[in-house]
Every structure is written in structure tokens, then in C-alpha cells.
Amino acid sequence: MKRFLNSLAFKVSAIIILVEIIILAGIGSYYIESFNRQIDERTEARVELAATLIDNGLLRLTTLTDEDMVRELIGEELLELRLVRSDGDLLYSLNRDEAARNIADFPDMNPAWFKPDMSDTVFEKTSDGIISVSPLHTLIQAANTTHYVYFKIGTEQAGQAKQDNAVLFVLGSIATIIATSIVILLAFRFTIFNRIGLLLDVLERVEVGDLTARAGGSISSDEIGVLQRGVNSMVSQLEETVGSLEQRVSERSHALELSAEVSRRLSTILDRQQLIDEVVEQVRSAFDYYYTQIYLFDENRENLVLARGTGEAGQMMLARGHSLPRGRGLVGRAAERNAQVLVPDVYRSLGVEIITQENVADIYRRETDHDFEAQWYSNWLVERFGEIYQAKQLARQKPATDKDIHLGYVLHLLIEFTKVMKRGAEAAARDLRVNLEVLAPSQAYNHLPLFESLMAKGVDGLVVVPYGEQWPTVLRQAIQVGIPVVAANIASPLTGMLNVFQGNFQTGAILAQELTKFLVARGHEHGEIVLGPGIPDRIQGFKHGMRNTDYTIIQVDESVGLSGVHAPAYWQQTISEHPDLIAAVGLMSFEIPLLAELKRNTGAEWLIGGYDLELATIEAIQEGIVEVAIGQHPYLQGYLPVLALVEHLRQRQPLEGWMAEGWLPNPLLPETRAEMAVPISIGEQVLGVLDVQDNIVGSLQQEEVNLLQSIADQVAVGLHNAQLFKELEAALAETRATHQRYLEQSWEKSKIAAQGGQYHYTRADAPALVEAILVEARRQALAQNQAAVVGLNGDGDAEETQDQSQEALVSPVTLRDKTIGVLQLYPANHDQSWAEDDLAIVEAVADQLAQSAESLRLFEETRQRAGRESTIREITDKLRQAPTLEILARTASEELSKILGVSHSLVRMGVKETQPLTGTGNESAEPENGSNRG
Q1: How far apart are the first and last CA of the chain?
Q2: How far are the Cα atoms of 82, 505, 538, 554, 693 from residue 545, in angstroms, in the given order?
Q3: Global pTM?
Q4: Most CB atoms closer than 10 Å: which of 27, 31, 192, 690?
């Protein structure tokens, strides 16, 4: 009950009933009053009738004495009848007792009613009836009243009639209220309440998380229909938002995982070049970028040298030693400022309009009202390109001495789309006060001669829509003779030119994404999408936009060469061959109207997506036949090239200024549309720059910059670690070399056997080996890295060596990569073979031999050092015990002579000049202090 009282139906019903009561009450008051007045007027007329007839001579005055006649004239409700003379005396009364009396005797008779000049009947209402007094003129044309007739009639019947009339009206009003309320509520129920109920059901389902809920059925064009479309659109946007949020969360998580994986892999690489190669390839493949590269500073920190780039472009730039001066381009700016640089759109993108039913009304007005179109785009240009205002002002203030600018604009064909381009170009020429000549061929793509004719005229600048493969040569010729050229509508085949257009690859991807929204809203998660032939970049972009979906893209043979003439037959056949398709996509401007007509005629349910601001396309979207189209602003494609050329010619601004600040176009990377560069730095020291580029406008966002920055930081750490590792390896190599020199020098001096470090064991029954065999075995042992069986070919006499074994097991004796000896083992007979275990034993013994030999060498070295230290300590003790300088000198000389075994020793203290040595044996020159011993 409470829910019903709070419902819209109850409130609407209450309002309807209340309004009806108020209206009927007002009407009833008016009409009941009118009915009552009519009853009173009829009563008064009936009462006045007798007097009127008498006064007009139609009845005789004596008729009043006939009561029956009077009652027949006036009615049965007659209560009193009095006939009064002009002097006030009564001549007749229904009441016989009142005869011959005067009006003064009756309180209910007002003397004012009986005036001699009275001409009209007087009526007076009383509590029990109506009184009337009428003057009578018994003679025709009599000037004065001779008699008065007084009637009093009852009003009971009139009152009952009034009451019956009021009751009837009330009952009728109640019936009317009930009937009209029921009818109105039923009408509201079917036209409003049921439809609102469906919307409430949709909202309740959405509230519990069902984002697939939609208001179904046919949607009218009234306010409820608008509300239904709005709710469906809102839920679709909510679903899209939630889906995009989920996708963004998923992509963000995936990106974080990729970043973590890349960072993990980087942490294990210590080779600098391997680290750089791995980073570039991993980043490009993990994030699906168009191009990735790393620059590092040279030794002088003046130039950034390309260290690695992906793909063929990267290899070509590496081969030619590509580098950038510090501070130049986005890479140089990121390095110089040690800051991230993000350019989502390297060109000044015109953007695209996504045309659906939500915004088609405004677009229709703009495209059909040229004055509104010009004003709309003018506002857009001022908002988007702030300097256009300055350019217009400059044009208006142009000095009279300035040379007039003459520009040429060549269209590939004059169709609806290019007609709008022409309007935009002419509007720019008017705004900027330049001369503009717009040319278009009568046949498609036959516009090269027109371009050449404008070149011959010597125009100051040219705009062209360069369809066809023959354009690069003629465009270069124009630029070589000093004529600046701007490409419009499509990319120029001449790399490096300024292109004012919406990238076909990007718009193809956008169309795919927008069409997917409508497919999902209709419940199509998979199915066939037929893609018509068209510009290859649009096809590739559309496929790119659909790459993560389950839809099957059916692409026709691109060699079909679809045109407006052959399109109807082609699409009819294609659609008949694919009865299960869920969407048809036209990539040329004339295809959407054609597909819309096919859909109308067949009543099909498949969706339509396509291109351009054709009026027929806009009308089809308004009708709901076409779901989405990509509008490419032909007006701007006409206007902006003219503006760019005028700014270039008049203000000497380079055409490259129309690109992003500092961005340098690379001929090897023609599809770059977005770029970001992040510094590879440790603290304030910048080591290089990690740079990525993509071929979709707006695909690079700040979140990705932050992820790349974290990877760049890991790269910086990795490069630093690689440098430290390289330095450590160099130090280790130097230490190892020093140690090997030490070992070599030490073992050259070491002799651990009487034969100079060599020991030869021979069994008693074994034949002697010739020296040549021993030498050859030693040579091969030194050449080995481990124990091995070698064949021996001694250089001695054949007769001496023919009975010798031709195989031996040899092994180097290695200590810390330094060979300090060899092992040579010879078999006891020719049939003996060496097993793997024999080699392992020999290797183990050789290793132990090396360790033990080194221990013995170190022990001997330590013992010798200890002996030297002991001798030095003994001599030092004796020197410290010497009481005089002479004894000190003699002690030092004698002790050194004993230990070193020298023939002469001389110690001279306090020497100022060299004196010749005299004497032999223990004699010494006399010291300056006079001592004769030293």
C-alpha cells in the first residue's frame, strides 16, 4: 500500500482527479447558477404574462376575477392575487375578506411598488415565494397607470427543480470524473507507465550489476522515446566505461607485469650491448610499439649516439652511425632537461568526429547551414589553433606594399566531400586576404596536369591531394624551384612534406573501436564483419582496432577497385554470400548511403559503420539505419593548408612548425604519429634516452610514460652495473695477469728436482725412450688443456723410433691457468689402451701435483724468506750493540761479507767526496774521522 501511495501512478491519478474536481466545480457553479436564473426568469415571465396580456388588450381586466383562468396562466402555485386601483384601494382579491381595503392595511405590500409613473413589473423574493407588481393601463396609449395587479406565487416547484438540477450535475460530474480518470489512466498506462516501468526495470537490473539491460521494443520519437534512448545510451556508456575500466585495469596490470618482467630480465644481464638489445626488443614487443630505440651519450657528452633501434629502420641508422646533437629533437630535449617528453600527436591533428544519433542533429545543422558551418569552424579553429587569430589580424593589417600572395589548391575530383574542402579553402583565403585558385579535374585522379599548370604560373604555394604513384617526382620539382607544397586529405608520397589530414590508419582503428561498442550493446560478442575495399591504411587500421576481439573480418579482394558505379551490384552480391554477417563496413564515402538503402529494402538487422560527412550518411544516422560514421572535417582540410602556407610565406614560419614542438620527422619512420622519450639517468647524470614511437594518435599516455621511466631507471642501473662489471673484469684480468707473471717468474726460479725440475721413471723391463719422443710428448702436453692420449712422431732416426710406442697419455700440470709442468705416461706395450678413468686419474693427480708443488714452492720461498729475515735480524742485533761508529761500520762490512761471500766490502760514513779504493782483502780507505778500518 505504501509503495502504491508513493508510486507515480497514484500521484498522477490524484492530480487528474483533483484537476477534474476543480474544473467541474467551476463549471458547475457557473451552470447551476445559470440554470437557477433561467428557472427564476421563466417563473417571472409566467407571473408577468397575465398583466402583459391585459395591458396589451388581449385579456379583459375582469379575467383576473376568474381564478381558474388565472391559475391556468400562472400556475397552480398561485398564492395571492390582488387587483389595486391607482389610489391604493383593492378592487379584487382571492381572499374575499380583503375586498374594499387599502394597500396600507397590508404590511407585505410596499407602497413604493405602486407609483403612478411605474412602467415595469416589480419582483420581490420572499421566504415562501415571489411577489410581482405589474402596472396596468386599461386604455390603449394611456399615459398613466390605472390599476396594479399583485401576484404572489410559491417557489417550491422551482426550488425542487433547482435541487434536481444540482443533484443531476453532481452525479454527472462524479460519473465524468470516474470515466475520464479511468480512460486517462489507461491511456497513461499504455503510453507512459508501462514504458516507464520498463525503464525502471532496466535501472533496477543495472543497479544490481546487469549492464546488458536495455529498454527493448520499438522506440518512439516522443519524450519517453527520448528518455528510453537516453537510458539505453547511458547504460551503454556505463557498460563501456566499466568495460574500459576493466580493460584499463587489465592492461595496466599486464603492463606492470611486462615492466616487472623486463626489469627482472635486465637485472641478470651484465653485458652492456646485450642489455641494450634486450631492452629495445622487449619494450617494443611487450607494448606493441611501432618503433623503439636507445641513445647513449658519447665520451664528450655532446652527442647522443644511437645504440640500438628496432626493425630495418634501426639497422639502417646504426649502419650509418646515426646521432643527435644534445638538445635537438624530443630525444635531445629529454636528455638535456633530464625530463620525460610525451607528444601524443606529433602533427597538429585535426581530430575526427564520431557521428552517432547522440550528436547527429547538431552535425546535420552545421553541414546544411553554410553560415552556421563557417561560424562553427571559425570558433573551433580559434580554440584549437590560437595563432589563427593572430594570422587574421596580421592579414587585416597587411601593409599596402606587401606582395599579394597567390596560392593554388588542386583537388583530385569535385565531389560532395571535396566541395566542402573547397569552401574551407576559400574561407581561409578570404580571412587571410590572399589570392586562391582552386582546381579540380572532370575525371577522377586526373589532377596532375592542373598541378603542373599552377607551377608554371609561378604561384607562391601549392596544396594538393596527391592520389597516385606519379606524384613524388613532380612534388620534388615544385620544392626544388622554391614552391612550398602542403598535402591535404591523404599522406604525401614525398617524405618530409607537411601533411594536413586525418591519418587513415588511425581513423580505421577508431571506427573499429566505435563499431565494437554498438556490437556489444546489441549482444554480438562474435560474428562476421564484412569489410569493403578501400584505402589500404584504413583497412589495416580497422584490423588493428579489432585485433583483441573475437569477430571474423571478411575482407574482399582489394583488386575489385570498388567505385560508385559498381558498388550496388558488388554489395548486393557480397551481402547475399554472407547471410550471417553482423556488420557491414564501408571505407569509401559513397558506401554508407548505399548500405543504408540496402538495409531499408531488405529489413536487415546488421549494423553499418563507415566514413565521411556526406549529407545522406548524416540522414541515415538520424533515421537509425546507420550506427556510426567517422567524419573527417573536409572543411578543415581545405582551410588549414592555406593557413599553414600563409603563415610560412608571410611570417617566415617553417612548415615544420605545424608539427609538435621539437619533433623531427624521420623518413625511415613515416608512420610515426605519437612519441615519448624518457631519460636514462642515475641521479642528475643522464646516460642516454629510451625513445618509443607509435603509429596511432593518442596511443601513448602518461601512465605508459611512468612505466617506461621505471624501465629506463632499471636500464640506467643495468648500464651502471655493466660498467662496474666491465671495470671489475678488467681489474681481475690485470690481477690475473700479474699473478700469472708472478707464477711464471717464481717457477722459472724453482727447481724441485735435481734434474732441473724433471723426474723420469722407467720400469726395469721397459725399453728406453729416445729423446725425440720425450720432446714431442712434452710439446703436445703443453698444447693440451686437459689429459689426453696423443700420437707421437719423433724426429729422431727411424730405426731408433720404429719400436717405440706411438701413443702417450699426456697432461699439463696447471696452476691458476698457468702451466707449470707436464705429465707424460707411456704404455708398457703396443696393445695397451687408455680408458676414460685413466684420463680422470691423471687429471686429478696433475691437479694435486700442481697444488702440492705450489705449496712446496711457497714453503721453500717462505723458508728462504724466513732465513733472510733471521740473518737480517742477527746482523741488526749486532749493529745495535756497536759502541762506536767505527765498530758499527766494521761490523756491517764483516757480516755482509760473510753472508754474501764477497771479496771486498766497504762501508764509508760521513763521505763528502769519493776517494779511490786502496788495498785488498779486508783493507779499506781511511774514513774522514781518521779511522783506518771500515
Answers
A1: 136
A2: 109, 10, 10, 15, 18
A3: 0.46
A4: 690
The pairing of strands 122-125 and 130-136 is antiparallel
**Beta-bridge mates of residue 789:** 809
Apex CA 877: angle with CA 876 and CA 882, to 5°?
95
Backbone angles phi, psi at 883, to 5 degrees: -85, -25
**Whole-number average pLDDT of the chain:** 79
Q: How far apart are CA 309 and CA 589, in angstroms?
A: 39
Query: How confident is the model at residue 243, as a pLDDT?
Result: 65
Q: Which tens digits make up the pLDDT trace of 239-261?
A: 766 765 666 556 556 666 666 66
How far is Cα of residue 321 from the mean position of the Cα atoms in its chain?
35
Nearest-angstrom CA–CA distance, 875 and 508:
98
Q: How far apart are CA 640 and CA 649, in angstroms?
A: 14
Report CA-CA distances (Å) from 858 to 741, 744, 755, 847, 867: 16, 13, 20, 16, 14
Per-residue confidence (pLDDT) for residue 758, from 0 to 100: 72
Taking alpha carbons only, the member of 346, 603, 357, 354 closest to residue 499 is 346
Instruction: Give me the amino acid identity at 636.
Output: L
Cα 532 versus chain centre, distance: 27
Cell numbers that stand for 194 in this block: 508501462
CA–CA separation, 337 and 328 (whole Å):
11
> Closest Cα partner for 611 from 510, 525, 522?
510
Banded pLDDT at 931 (limits 50, 70, 90): very low
Tens digit of each residue's pLDDT (9 = 90 or more) over 120-131: 888 888 877 888
Q: pLDDT for 866-885, tens place per residue?
A: 888 888 888 888 888 888 88
Q: Are 718 and 690 in contact (CB under 8 A)?
A: no
Reading phi first (left if > 0) and then psi (alpha if -120 to 50, else beta), residue 435 is in: beta
- CA count, 13 A, side-chain hemisphere, 406: 7
Please say whether the beta carbons of 636 and 478 come within 8 A: no
Q: In 3-state terms, what secondary structure has residue 668?
A: coil
Tell me: the pLDDT tens digits for 592-626?
999 999 999 888 889 999 988 888 899 999 989 99
Q: Which residues pair with 78 in a beta bridge?
A: 153
Pairing of strands 78-85, 461-464: unpaired
Query: Per the structure block, which three cell numbers stand in for 518?
Result: 554498438
Handedness of CA 883, 889, 895, 896 (dihedral sign): positive
Largest Cα–Cα distance in the chain?
213
Strand partners, 818: 815
Q: Within its chain, how far is the Cα of 319 from the centroid?
A: 36
> What's the pLDDT band for 919 if we cut at 50, 70, 90?
very low
**What's 460-519 look like in SS3?**
CEEEECCCCCCHHHHHHHHHHCCCCEEEECCCCCCCCCEEECCCHHHHHHHHHHHHHHHH
Q: Are 715 and 266 in contact (CB under 8 A)?
A: yes
For residues 592 and 360, what is the distance between their CA atoms, to the nearest angstrom? 15
- Three-class secondary structure of residue 866 per DSSP: helix
Q: At what angle do helices 836-881 and 702-749 cross, to 10 degrees?
A: 70
How do 406-410 and 461-464 pair as beta strands? Answer: parallel
Instruction: Report the interhelical angle of 223-266 vs 194-207 (nearest 10°).
Output: 20
Report the alpha-carbon distance of residue 827 to residue 765 in Å, rounded.
Answer: 12
β-bridge pairing 122-125 and 607-611: unpaired
State the Cα–Cα distance between residues 614 and 415, nearest whole angstrom. 10
Q: Which three cell numbers stand for residue 670?
A: 613515416
